[in-house]
Amino acid sequence: MNSPNHSLSRWFRSGGEPAQSNAQEKGTAAPRGTRRSIGFGEFMRSLQADLKAAGEQRLSILDLGSTSPANISFFTEMGLRVSTEDVLRACKDPDYALRQEDGSEQFDSQKFLAENLAYSEGQFDAVLCWDVADYLPEALVKPLVERIRFVLKPHGTLLAFFHDKDPGPNSALYRYHITQTDTLEMEPKGSVKLQRIFNNRHVESLFADFASRKFFLGRDNYREVIVVR
Q1: CA 167 to chain centre
Q2: CA end-to-end span of the chain
Q3: Residue 12 in this model has a pLDDT that exceeds 80
Q4: What is the pTM of this model?
């Protein structure tokens, strides 16, 4: 299990946060927003049913977003084992930039997965991806989904968010904090360029090797997806 301190130490090695907004650069915290998430509510109902069925057995969850003490507390109070991997922060490490013969750079997904998400097969009952896939280097998207499938137990549940529309050159990158079983607080971390927009067909293809996919369309240009291993 990766501790928050381990994730923090990786951040300092990888060069820190994404580019910050003007308000953050001036030391003024950007306001947080709250959104009701149908997908997260569905994810929690599935997780609570798994907890009830597990009895005395402790379940494990993997959070791939920015480390949130609120989320860690929320799940540990439910009796879950929690692991955190800030994937977007980790992949900013320049060591993963593989220079090609023509001088261009390509992300070294093989090296990244050798050093990150090094968990055993079927270790987790649930995975929170948030909107990580929208910002990943292209070379890492499919290999990361394959790794998630490997570490997720059969019938385990994954929650992912996808932008439904391109907001322009830069989009707000958020840290998601759980406040209730169907409500999230969104903390702006700056502006980062989306790498892609997934439509339903792309999402279906991305998770083709999983047992099922269920879509929820939010009113704030997010598509929420529950995927079952």
Answers
A1: 20
A2: 21
A3: no
A4: 0.83
